[in-house]
Specification:
- With 234 residues, this protein is α/β, with parallel strands linked by helices.
- It is built from nine helices and nine strands.
- The protein has one domain (2-230): Glycoside hydrolase/deacetylase (TIM Barrel, Alpha-Beta Barrel), CATH 3.20.20.370.
- Helix content is 44%, strand content 15%.
- The strands form two sheets. Strands 2, 3, 4, 7, 8 and 9 form a six-stranded parallel beta sheet that branches. A three-stranded parallel beta sheet has the order 1-6-5, with no helix packed on it.
- Helix 2 (55-64) links the parallel strand 2 (42-50) and strand 3 (70-73).
Length: 234
C-alpha cells in the first residue's frame, strides 16, 4: 500500500512539473499569460527568434495592412542584425525578450536563466533604445528559477493561444491553424527566425501571413501588440 501511495505521489508530482514547464496557462515558474480578454475583437500576432534577414519583408506585409505585432527577439540575433531590430521598433511594433542564445531551459541553474534573460535585455535595449517588458521562453519551456529572473528584470511571461507550427507545416497548414484558432483575445505564435541561425528559411511563414492578414481583417479582428491586448479598456 505504501509503495502504491508513493508511486501515486511521484506520478502526481511529475504531472505538476510537466504542466509547470510546458502548460500554456501555467504560472508555476513565473507570471505568464497565454491569451487576452475575450470582450474585444482583438488578436495579438507574435513572432519569435528574430530578427533575421527576412524580417524586413514581414514588416512590409504588416505595414501594408497598418497592423502591429510583437517580436520576441534573441539577443544574439540583435547583435548580428542591429539595424533590423531597430527597424522593427521604428515601425511601431513591440519588442520582447526571447533569451540571448535560445537555449533549452531544462535542468539549468538559476544563474544561467537570469544571465540569459539579462544579457538579451541589455542587448535589445542598447541597440534599439527599447527595454522589453515581455518575455517568451525558448520552446515555451519554463524552469524553476525563471520567475525570479523575470521579477528582477520586470518581465511578464507570454505563451500563446495558437502555435503556428511554421517550422514544420507548409503555408496552407500554417494559415489553417491560425485562422482556426482566431478568436477574441487570441495570441498567435509564429517565427521570423529559426533559433539563432543566420538566413533562416521562413518563406512558408511569410506566405501564411499574406493569406491570413486579409482574412483576419475581413472577420473584423483588430491586430494589437500583446501589451495593447492585455490593457483593459473602458
Amino acid at each position: 500500500m505504501l509503495i502504491e501511495i508513493l508511486a501515486g505521489a511521484s506520478c502526481a508530482a511529475a504531472g505538476v512539473m510537466a504542466y509547470g514547464v510546458r502548460g500554456r496557462s501555467a504560472r508555476l515558474f513565473g507570471p505568464s499569460v497565454w491569451r487576452g480578454p475575450a470582450e474585444r475583437r482583438s488578436i495579438a500576432l507574435t513572432f519569435d527568434d528574430g530578427p533575421s534577414e527576412s524580417t524586413p519583408e514581414l514588416l512590409d506585409l504588416l505595414e501594408r495592412r497598418q497592423m502591429r505585432a510583437t517580436f520576441f527577439q534573441c539577443g544574439l540575433n540583435v547583435e548580428r542584425l542591429p539595424e533590423v531590430a531597430r527597424e522593427v521598433a521604428a515601425r511601431g511594433h513591440e519588442l520582447g525578450n526571447h533569451s540571448h542564445m535560445h537555449p533549452r531551459f531544462y535542468l539549468r541553474s538559476r544563474r544561467f536563466l537570469y544571465e540569459e534573460l539579462a544579457r538579451a535585455q541589455y542587448i535589445i535595449s542598447a541597440n534599439t533604445g527599447v527595454t522589453p517588458r515581455l518575455f517568451r521562453a525558448p520552446y515555451g519551456a519554463r524552469w524553476p528559477g525563471l520567475g525570479a529572473a523575470q521579477s528582477r528584470l520586470s518581465l511578464l511571461g507570454v505563451m500563446w493561444t495558437v502555435f503556428g507550427r511554421d517550422g514544420v507545416l507548409p503555408a496552407e497548414g500554417i494559415a489553417r491553424r491560425l485562422l482556426g484558432g482566431a478568436r477574441n483575445g487570441a495570441i498567435l505564435c509564429l517565427h521570423d527566425g529559426h533559433e539563432v541561425r543566420p538566413r533562416p528559411d521562413v518563406r512558408p511563414m511569410l506566405e501564411a501571413v499574406r493569406r491570413v492578414l486579409p482574412e483576419l481583417e475581413a472577420r473584423g479582428f483588430r491586430l494589437e501588440t500583446v501589451s495593447e491586448l492585455l490593457c483593459p479598456r473602458n
